[in-house]
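Dear colleague,

As promised, here are the two records you asked about, laid out in our usual form so they can be pasted straight into your sheet.

NAME FIELD: protein one
SEQUENCE, THEN STRUCTURE:
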Amino acid sequence: MKKTMVAYFILKVLTAFSLPLFLIITYDLTSSAIYVGIVSFLLAFGDIVGNVYWYKMSRRKNVFLLSYLSFISLFLLLFNKISLVLISAYLFSFFNAAGYISLLHSKFFRKKPKERLAKFEKFGGIAYVIGLALGFSIKLISYFEIIPLIEIFALISILSLYKTIRREVEKEVSKGLIAIEDFIEKSPKGFSLLISTIVRSLTLFSFTFFSLRKPSKIKFHIPYILFFFAAGLLLPQIVTVIKEKNLGDIWVYFSYFLGSLFSLLGYQIIQKTRNSKKIGVSSLFLRVFLFLSFFFLTILSGIFLQISIIVFKILQGFTWGVLLVWFNYLIIKRKKSELGINLSLRSFSSSLGNFFGGFLFEFNPLILSLVSSSLIVGSIVLLAKKSI
C-alpha cells in the first residue's frame, strides 16, 4: 500500500501541475474567455463521468494504473489545435478519476476509516499544493518541454507499481484470461461496453433530477446548486484576466497555489472552531463581496492588479475551505441520506457554471460579477429560510 500511496502522491502532483496548463494553452490558442470556460467545463465534467464509471469498476484490481492514461492524453496538447485540447481535457479528467476512486475502495480504509480518510485527503492536498508550486518553473521552460517530462515521471510511477501487481498479472496470463486470441475476440465487446457505460453515466444527472420529484427535496438542494453554479461561472475567468493583462503564465500557477494553500487553512480553522455557523455565514457574505470585486480586476493594471489578485485568491481559497466543510456538516446534520446526491449536483452545477461563465465574461465582466454575486445572495436567503 505504501508504494501505491507514493504513486498516488506523484499522480496528484502531476495533476495539479497539468490542470492550469490546459487553461494557459487554451487562452494562448484562442484568446477567448469562452474557450477557457468550455475547457474548464470539460475538465470538471470528465471528472464527474469518470467518478461514475470507475466507481462501477472499482472492485477490479489494478484500476489505479488506468489513471496514468490521463497523462498520455496530454500529447494532444502539443499539436496546438483547440479541438484536440477539448478532447484531451475530457480524457485527462476522465481517466485521472480512476486513481482516487480505486484507492477509496481499497482495503486500506476498512480499518479506522475516519482517521485514514482524513490523512488521505490531507496527503492529497499537500501533493496538490506541491504540484502547483512546481508550476512556477513554467517561466524557465515551455510546455513543449514540460509535457514530455510529465510523461516520464508518470511512467516512472507506473513502473514502481509494477512489481506490486506483477504476480497478479502473471496469474491472469497463466490462466489464459488475457491471451492474445481471447483479447481479440473480446475487445469489440469490451469497447462497446465502455461506450455504453460512458453514455449511461452521461445521463446520470437527468436520472438524479427525476428521482428528486418531491418539492421538499428539490428545495433542499437549491441553495447549494446556486452557490456552486456561481463559483463555476466566475473562478476560471481569473485565468482569462491574468492572460489578458499579460502577467505571465507563472501568475496562473501562483493564483492556483494561493487558493489551494489557503483552502487548507480554511479546513483547519473550521474544524477547530466551536461556532461553525458564525464563520460559515461570514464566509458566504465575504464571497458576495469577493465576486462583486471581480469586475475591478478587469480594469486594474500593474502592481494594483497583482495585489488585488493575491488578496482575491487568498480570500477565495480560505472561504472555499470553510464552506466546503460547513456545507457537508449542514447536510449530514439535516439529511444525511441526501449527501451523495448533493455532492453530485454540486459538481454538475459547478461544471455548468464553467461553461456559461466564459460567455458572460465576453459579453460583459460586470454582468458576470453581478450575476455570480446575486446567485450567492440567493443561496444565503434560501439557507436563512431554513434557519441555517
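NAME FIELD: protein two
SEQUENCE, THEN STRUCTURE:
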Amino acid sequence: MLGPLYIPHVIFSAIVVCIWAYPRIAKRYSKYTARLTIGVMGFLGFNILTTLPARAQFLNGGREFFRTSFPDTTELTDLLFNIMLAVYVIYIAVSAYRVFGAMRSEEGGEWIEIAKTPLKIILAITVIDSMIALVVDGAG
C-alpha cells in the first residue's frame, strides 16, 4: 500500500529536517540541548510519518451514496472524489500561503480581504457535506 520506498523516504526527510534545524537550535542553546531537541524531533517525526495514512473525513456521505447507488462505477467514483479532495486541499494550501504572505507584509488589513474567499469556500464545502449527510442518511 505504501510502496517499497516509503521508509527510506521518511528517513531521508527526517535527516533533512535535522540538518536544517540543528544549526538554528545550536545557536541559541548548548550543543547537548540541541542534540536532545533534534533527537526528540526525529523520534516524533518518524512516528508521525510512519503511521497509516489519514483518510479525508469530508464528502464521505456522498462518496458512499454513489458507491451504493451505482455499484459498477466504484473505481470511477473513488477517482472523482479523490480528485475533488485533492483540488480542495491544494486550493486551501495555496490560499493559506497567500494569506500568510499578505499578513507578513506591511500592508495592514489586506490579508483579511484575501482570506475571505477561501473561508467562504471552506464554509460552502462544510455546508454541502452536512446537507449530503442529512439527505443520504435520511434516505438510507
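A couple of things worth noting about protein two: The mean pLDDT is 77. The chain has two domains: 6-49, 60-139.

Best,
R.
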